[in-house]
Amino acid sequence: MSTVVEVVYSPLIIFRLRERSLVRGIALSLIAFITSLLLAGFPHIENLHGSPWQVLALILGAWGMVETGRCMRKKWSLYSAGVLILLYSDLVILMLIVFLVAYR
After folding, report:
1. DSSP string covering 39-90, please?
2. Domain total for the chain?
3. pLDDT digits (tens, 9 = 90+) for 13-72
4. Cβ contact 73:102 at 8 Å
């Protein structure tokens, strides 16, 4: 008698949290930035305000930066340079979110 166990396996690497994914890191950072802008009331520039919910966007942006940082390789190459540039862009996104959180 044999038993068959079905395992849910996602074909998309974005949903495999144990594996490295640049797309997941960039997507998390961009979603956090857009969410923070919308929570601050961005379309109406005269009504900009801070929101306590933006802290969640800050955590999401930090998670995106960690995901991007996981993609760094030990040996230096042009790929590593590209990941480093993406890490700098994640840092800029985090600083913009911190500014929007502190802006009251």
Report:
1. HTTTTSGGG----TTHHHHHHHHHHHHHHHHTT--SS--HHHHHHHHHHHHH
2. 1
3. 666 667 788 888 999 999 999 998 888 877 776 676 777 788 899 999 999 999 999 888
4. no
Q: Is residue 6 part of a domain?
A: no
Separation CA 16–CA 1 (nearest Å): 32
Handedness of CA 9, 71, 89, 103 (dihedral sign): positive
Is residue 19 in some structural domain? Answer: yes
60-81 pLDDT, tens digit per residue, is: 999 999 999 988 888 989 989 9
**Against a cut of 0.70, is the pTM above it?**
yes
Structural domain span for residue 63: 13-102
Quick check: is 3 in a domain? no
Phi, psi of 95 (to 5 degrees): -70, -35
| Inter-residue contact 62 to 97 (CB < 8 Å) | no
Is residue 61 exposed (0-12), middle (13-18) or buried (19+ Cβ within 10 Å)? buried
